[in-house]
Amino acid sequence: MSLSLAAIVEALGGELRGSPEREVARLASLETATPADISFLVPNPKLAGLLAQTQAGCIIVAPAMQEAAGARGDCIVASDPYLYFARLTQLWKRTHLPPEPAGIHPSAVVEEGAQVHPAARVGALCFVGSGARIGAHTVLRERVTVASGCTIGERCLIESGAVIGGDGFGFAPHQGQWVKIEQLGGVRIGNDVEIGANTCIDRGALDDTVIEDGVKLDNLIQIGHNTHIGAHTAMAGCVGVAGSARIGAHCTVGGAGMILGHLDIADHVHISAASMVARSITKPGQYTGFFPIDDNAAWEKNAASLKHLHALRERVRQLEKKLAENGDNARLSG
Amino acid sequence: MSLSLAAIVEALGGELRGSPEREVARLASLETATPADISFLVPNPKLAGLLAQTQAGCIIVAPAMQEAAGARGDCIVASDPYLYFARLTQLWKRTHLPPEPAGIHPSAVVEEGAQVHPAARVGALCFVGSGARIGAHTVLRERVTVASGCTIGERCLIESGAVIGGDGFGFAPHQGQWVKIEQLGGVRIGNDVEIGANTCIDRGALDDTVIEDGVKLDNLIQIGHNTHIGAHTAMAGCVGVAGSARIGAHCTVGGAGMILGHLDIADHVHISAASMVARSITKPGQYTGFFPIDDNAAWEKNAASLKHLHALRERVRQLEKKLAENGDNARLSG
Amino acid sequence: MSLSLAAIVEALGGELRGSPEREVARLASLETATPADISFLVPNPKLAGLLAQTQAGCIIVAPAMQEAAGARGDCIVASDPYLYFARLTQLWKRTHLPPEPAGIHPSAVVEEGAQVHPAARVGALCFVGSGARIGAHTVLRERVTVASGCTIGERCLIESGAVIGGDGFGFAPHQGQWVKIEQLGGVRIGNDVEIGANTCIDRGALDDTVIEDGVKLDNLIQIGHNTHIGAHTAMAGCVGVAGSARIGAHCTVGGAGMILGHLDIADHVHISAASMVARSITKPGQYTGFFPIDDNAAWEKNAASLKHLHALRERVRQLEKKLAENGDNARLSG
Question: Where is the active site (chains A, B, C) (predicted)?
C-alpha cells in the first residue's frame, strides 16, 4: 500500500522537487507524519514554523515556500496545496480502497416504480420509494431512506441513516388540536450533493423542497419543507432550517446554526456556529449571535444583569440628561 | 389527476361561488398557482393584495373576503380557510396517492410477543420488539425502531428513522467512572401522535416516558427518559428535552428549543426557537432567550462587553450615587 | 417477578435492617413507590422529608439516615445509596428481563472481513462493514451502522440508529465549489463505551477519531472527524463536537452544548447545557454561556439593548470621565 511521488505527480500535476521513486506509505498531517508519509502545508505564515519540525518525507507546498521546503527534503510544488491534497486523498482512495460498486444491495428495499440508474449504488438496508429517482454515480450508503417521489441527481453521496422525503411539519390548529396538512410535494436534489449521516430533508407541502447542485450538508441537519438551498452552500452538523426558508448560493452555516422559516438569505452569507437567524439577511457577510461562554459564576452575574439591560440603558440616559442639565445650570450660574 | 369543485364542496362543505364542474389539477400557494390550481387565502389584511396578483383558478376564502374573491373568479367560502385547506390536502391524498396499506412489510423484524393491530402498518426495515404494542391505523414509515415494552396508540404516524424506547441516559458516578442504571421503564404514546424522522424518545428509568394524545413532534428531537408531554403539545425540529421534565398540554416549542430536566412547564406555554429553559414555567405565555444575530464585528464588540455587564451595572450604580451626592452637595451649598 | 431483600443483600452487599423474606415487586422512585416497592434516598438533607411521605416498602439509605429510615420500616444501609440502586437495576435486569443473547441477528448485514467477537451481539437490521471489529460482550441494538475499518471495544452498548464511521465533513474550496477530501481514517472506540440512539461519530480524515474507555454519549450527538474524547467523559443529548477537538477525561457536556473544532478542553471541565465553546479551556471548572430565557416582551427589549451594549459601555465611560472632571473643577473652584 504505497504510491511513488512520480505516480502522484503524473496523476495530479504539480512540480516535484526530489526523488520520483520515493514511495509514500500514508497521507498524514504535518504533526503526525513520519519519514514514510506525505503531508501538506497551507500557505499561512503562522504555520511556516511547522516546516522545521515535521518528520514528513514529502510535503506539498505553495510556490512561495518551495525554497524552504526544498532545503529540508522532498516536496511537491502546487499553486493550492490544500486542493492538491484533497485530490491526493481521492487518488489514494481510488488506488488503495475497495470500490463502492454500482448496484442495489440485496438487503435494500426498492419499491416498484423507483428509478435507480444502473451506475448508482443503493447500499445495504436502504429504502427507495415508488417514483423516486436516483442518478448515475450517486451512492446511498447504508440505511438511507429516499421516500416516494423524491429525486437525487448524479454523483451525490448520501450517508447512513439520512431520511430524504419525510413529511414536512404542517398542521392547522383547530379547537386546541392539530389537523394534519398532508405533504404533497417532494424533494429535488441536484448533482454533486453530499448529505450527512442521520440528516433529514422533508418533502414540500405543495411544491418541492429543493437542494441545488454542489450543496454539502453535514450530519444531523434538519431541513424543513419547501426550503430552497442555493448551489454550493455548505452547512456543518446539527444545523436546523425551518420551513420555506430560501437560502442563497455559496453560503455557509456553522454547527448548530438555526434558520427560521419563511425568510431569505442572500448569496455568500456566512452564519457562525450556534447563531440563530430570525430575520432575512440581504447582504453578504459574516453574521454571529451566541452568548460567549464564561466560568459559571461570571456567567451567572452577567446573565442576571442582562435581564435588566434595557432598564440600565434607561438609567444611563437619565444620567446623561442630568449631567447635561448640571452643565447647563453650571454655565447659567457661572 | 384532478378534482372538480363540486366534489370538493361535497366532501368538505363550504359554499361554492363559481363553476361546480371546474376541475383543479393541483393544490398550490397563491404565489405559484396557475389557472388550473386551487389555493387559499388566510384572513390577514396584509395578504389581501395577493388576491389581485394570484393566477389561481379557485381560492378558498373567509366570508369577509368573498366579495373581493368572487369578483375575480371562482372561490369557496369557508369559515377557516387554512383548516379547509388542510382537509383538502387530506382529500387529495385519499383520492390521488396510493394508500399506505395495513400490514407488516416482509423486510420488517417484529419479535415474538409484539402486538401489532391488523389495521396498523409496519413499514420496510422496521424493528418492533417483544411486548411492544402498536394500535389500529398507526403507520410506522420505514426504518423505525419500537423497542420492547413500548406502546403506541391509534392513528399515529412515526416517520423514518425514529427510535422509540432507547435506553434513557442514567449513570451513577463511582470513583471517576459511570455505573449504568438499567432503564426498566417503557414509553407510552397516546392516540393521534406524530413523531418525526430520526426523533428519539427514551424509555423511562423506572416508570414510563409518556407522550399524550395529539402531540406532534418534528424531526431530530430528543425526548429524555421519564419526560411527560401533555396532550396536543407541538415541538419543531432539533428540540431537546432532558429527563423527567413535565411539559403541559397545548404548549409549543420552536426549533432547537432546549428544556432541562426535572422541571415543570404549565399548559399553554410557548417557547421560542433556540431558547433554553432552565427553570420551571408556571404561567402561560411566550418565552424567549437567544442572543440576537448581528454582523460579526458588531457581535464581537457587544459579546466582549457582555462579559463586563455586571461590572458595568455597578459602575452605573456608582455614577447614580455620586450624582445624587453632588446634587445634595449643590443643594446644601446652594 | 419479585426479589427478596435477602437475595438483594446477598448479591449486592449492604446491611439489611428488616425482614429478609420480604419480596419487592418493583423498583420505584420515593414519590411513586407503593408498599410492594423498593426505593432509595440520596443523602441530601433537602430530601429527608420524603422519608416520612413515601409508601415504599424498603428504602436504600446512607448510614447517616439509618435510624430515621429504620424507624419507619425496612431499609438497606449502603455507603452510596445511588450507586447501590444502580447496581440493583442491573440485578433486576439480569433476573427479570430476557437476556440480549450473543450472536448476529439474521437480518443484520455483516460484510466479509468484519470481525465480530462470538460474545458480541449484532442486533436486527444492523450493518457492519468490512474490516470493522466488535469486541466481546458489546451490544449493537437494532439498525446500527459500524462502517468499514471502525473498531469497538468490549462491553460497549450502541443504541438504535447510531452511525459509527460516516465520512467526516472535509472539503477544499475551489472556484466557488467544494472538492471532497476523502476520509481515510477510521473510528476507534474503547471499552465500556455507551453511544446513544441516532448519534453519529465520523471517521477521521487521515488519523482516527478516538473515543476512550468509559465514555458515555447520549442520543443525537454529532462527533466530528478526528475528535479525541478522553476516558469517562459524558455528554448529554444533542451535543455537537466539530472536527479535531481534543476533549479531556472526566468531562461533562450538558444537552445541546456545542464545541468548535481544533481546540483543547482540559480534564474535568464541565460545560453547561446550550453553551457554545469557541476557545480552548485549560482549567477544570464549570463553564456556561446561554441567553437567559424571559417572557418574550422583556427579552425583546433586552435583546434590542444588547445590540448597543458596546456603545453603552462607552457612554458610561464618558459619564465617569465627565463626572471626574466636574469633581476636579469643583475642587479647583471650591
Answer: 225 (proton acceptor)
Look at residues A208, A278, A265 and name the one whose alpha carbon lies nearest to residue A235: A265
Q: How far is CA C103 from CA A100, A124, B256, C147, in A?
A: 27, 19, 38, 18
Subunits with 3+ C-beta pairs closer than 8 A to B: A, C
Instruction: List the catalytic residues of B.
Output: 225
Q: Any chain C CB within 8 A of the CB of B321?
A: no
CB spacing of A184 vs B159 below 8 angstroms? no
Adjacent-strand bridge partners of B140: B122, B158
pLDDT digits (tens, 9 = 90+) for B26-54: 999 999 999 999 999 988 888 888 888 99
User: B166 CB near a chain C CB, below 8 Å?
Assistant: yes
Does any CB of chain A come closer than 8 Å to the CB of residue B34?
A: no
Distances (CA, A) of B257 to A247, B275, B282, C259, C274: 22, 5, 18, 18, 9
Chain B, residues 234-293, CB within 8 A of chain C, namely: 238, 240, 242, 256, 258, 260, 271-272, 275-279, 285-292
CB-based contact A287 B293, cutoff 8 Å: yes
Residue B14 in this model has a pLDDT that exceeds 80: yes
Residue that the C-alpha cell 413535565 belongs to: B246
Per-residue pLDDT of chain A (334 residues; tens, 9 = 90+): 789 999 999 999 999 999 999 999 999 999 999 999 999 998 888 888 888 899 999 999 999 999 999 999 999 999 999 999 999 999 999 999 998 999 999 999 999 999 999 999 999 999 999 999 999 999 999 999 999 999 999 999 999 999 999 999 999 999 999 999 999 999 999 999 999 999 999 999 999 999 999 999 999 999 999 999 999 999 999 999 999 999 999 999 999 999 999 999 999 999 999 999 999 999 999 999 999 999 999 999 999 999 999 999 999 999 999 988 877 776 666 4
The predicted pLDDT at position C331 comes to 66
User: A323-329 contacts: CB < 8 A, separation 24 or more?
Assistant: A323/B323, A323/C319, A323/C322, A323/C323, A323/C326, A326/B323, A326/B326, A326/B330, A326/C326
Residue B63, C-alpha cell as written in the block: 366570508
> What pLDDT sits at residue B44?
82
Q: How far is B150 from chain C (nearest CA, A)?
A: 14
A305 touches chain C (CB under 8 A): no
Strands A3-4 and A23-24: antiparallel
Write the DSSP string, A256-301: T-EE-SS-EE-TTEEEPTT-EE-S-B-S-EEEE--PPPEEHHHHHH
State the DSSP H helix or E strand holding residue B39, giving kind and residue range, or none if neither.
strand B37-40
- Chain C residues in contact with A329 by the CB 8 A cut-off are none
- Exposed, middle or buried, B220 (CB in 10 Å: 0-12/13-18/19+)? buried
Q: Of A192, A117, A201, A120, which Cα lies nearest the Cα of A156?
A: A192
Which residues of chain C fall short of a pLDDT of 70? Answer: 330-334
Q: What is the pLDDT of residue A333?
A: 62
SS3 at position B240: strand
B242 three-state secondary structure = coil
Q: Which of A162, A166, A168, A167 has its CA nearest to residue A125?
A: A162
Chain C, 105-144: which have a CB under 8 Å from a chain B CB?
Answer: 105, 107, 123-125, 141-143
Query: Which residues make beta-bridge pairs with B184?
Result: none
Contact A246, A265 (CB under 8 A): yes
Q: What is the DSSP letter of A78?
A: -
* Nine cell digits for residue A300: 451567572
On whether any CB of chain C is under 8 Å from the CB of B31, the answer is: no
Q: Are strands B103-104 and B121-122 parallel, antiparallel or unpaired?
A: parallel
